[in-house]
Write a structure and sequence with these properties.
Layout (H helix, E strand, L loop, with lengths): L20 E7 L5 E5 L5 H4 L15 E5 L2 E6 L1 H7 L13 E4 L4 E7 L5 E5 L5 H7 L7 E11 L5 H4 L3 E6 L1 H6 L11 E6 L7 E6 L5 E4 L6 H7 L7 E11 L5 E6 L1 H5 L14 E6 H4 L4 E4 L7 E4 L6 H7 L16
Parallel strand pairs: 1-5, 6-10, 11-15
Antiparallel strand pairs: 1-2, 3-4, 3-5, 6-7, 8-9, 8-10, 11-12, 13-14, 13-15, 16-17
Length: 334
């Protein structure tokens, strides 16, 4: 400092480019060898330099070897599933990253959130696999899952088969603390619940709002018709059919009088059961349609619906008229 106490000497420091690190990558990688990485690179970040393992390599046991000793191992699934870099470590010069062969590999499909092929670590089973795969869908059937398993070579002669199916109770496995062990090559199928509604009745035909309705504790035929906004104008009142499923899953038909049912007659306004199907007929479907045919020298010959008060002139007019007026003189009705 000067006699006045102010600073008279200054030091400027500038930081240049940091020298890259050389690391060795071995094992199940596409191009094993030496790689230049940034000095701040960690074990997780290093995977991007060599594009990760091949399909034969492990993502669950990526090892860091320093001075001939393994000092760290990371599970890349932790990062993929939680975003956390657990046990990550910064690399040093001449570190070796080793990717071993992929461990036990299984696949899961069906009512699971992430259907895919997964690698499992030692001690992980079906319960762990479901968690890794994002959990079950709400439509998963809990009483049964199926495992397609390759029989180990030493057991094939004794069992007389190379592959086998194993059915398991999915609900019990998830509640159990023991879990269920899986073997390499297992294919797990998670089934779906049935696409069936037990608490419904169905009404169709000459009704304002046909479709399915939920059945109350006590619903009668008249109640269902009123919930469907009643009948349309041409409803046939002398009959309504109800199809009912028996306990042995056969079907029977109950023929009822619609008019009496709407009047509340107990023999016709019967109580409905789950899965009943009601058909209300319309007069237009009960009365057969009649047709007339016109052919010969008209522009649009063919078959036409016979409506009330339809005349021969109307029919010829609908057929487009005569093709040639000269033929009109020789026209006759058959």
């Amino acid at each position: 400092r000067s006699n006045s106490g102010s600073a008279s000497t200054f030091l400027d420091i500038s930081l240049g480019n940091l020298r890259p690190l050389r690391v060795i990558v071995l094992g199940e990688v596409g191009q094993p060898g030496a790689y230049q990485v940034s000095p701040s690179t960690t074990l997780f970040h290093a995977l991007y330099y060599f594009n990760g393992p091949t399909t034969l390599g492990s993502l669950r046991d990526i090892r860091l070897i320093r001075s001939g000793k393994q000092i760290a191992s990371i599970d890349f699934y932790d990062y993929l599933l939680s975003g956390k870099k657990i046990d990550d470590i910064r690399l040093q010069l001449d570190d070796t990253i080793f990717l071993p062969k992929r461990g036990k590999t299984v696949s899961i499909q069906g009512e699971i959130n992430r259907q895919a092929i997964y690698e499992l670590k030692k001690g992980e089973g079906l319960k762990d696999l479901i968690e890794i795969a994002g959990g079950l869908r709400v439509s998963a059937y809990m009483n049964r899952a199926q495992i397609d398993r390759i029989v180990p070579p030493g057991d094939r002669d004794a069992l007389g088969m190379d592959r086998m199916f194993i059915d398991v109770d999915l609900g019990q496995i998830l509640e159990s603390k023991k879990g269920f062990a899986l073997t390499d090559g297992d294919k797990i199928q998670i089934f779906s619940i049935l696409d069936m509604r037990q608490n419904t009745v169905e009404i169709n035909g000459a009704i304002v709002r046909p479709g399915r309705y939920d059945i109350n504790e006590a619903m009668f035929l008249k109640d269902l018709i009123l919930r469907a906004d009643s009948l349309v104008g041409d409803a046939y009142l002398d009959r309504v059919d109800l199809v009912r499923i028996n306990s042995d899953f056969t079907e029977k038909i109950l023929k009822l009088n619609l008019k009496l049912a709407l009047e509340g007659h107990p023999d016709h306004n019967i109580e409905l059961k789950s899965l009943d199907r009601v058909t209300v007929y319309g007069k237009s479907t009960m009365i057969p349609r009649r047709y007339v045919t016109i052919s010969g020298h008209v522009k649009i010959p063919g078959r036409y619906l016979l409506r009330e008060d339809l005349t021969l002139y109307d029919l010829i007019f609908k057929a487009g008229g005569f093709t040639d007026k000269e033929y009109l003189k020789m026209t006759y009705r058959q």
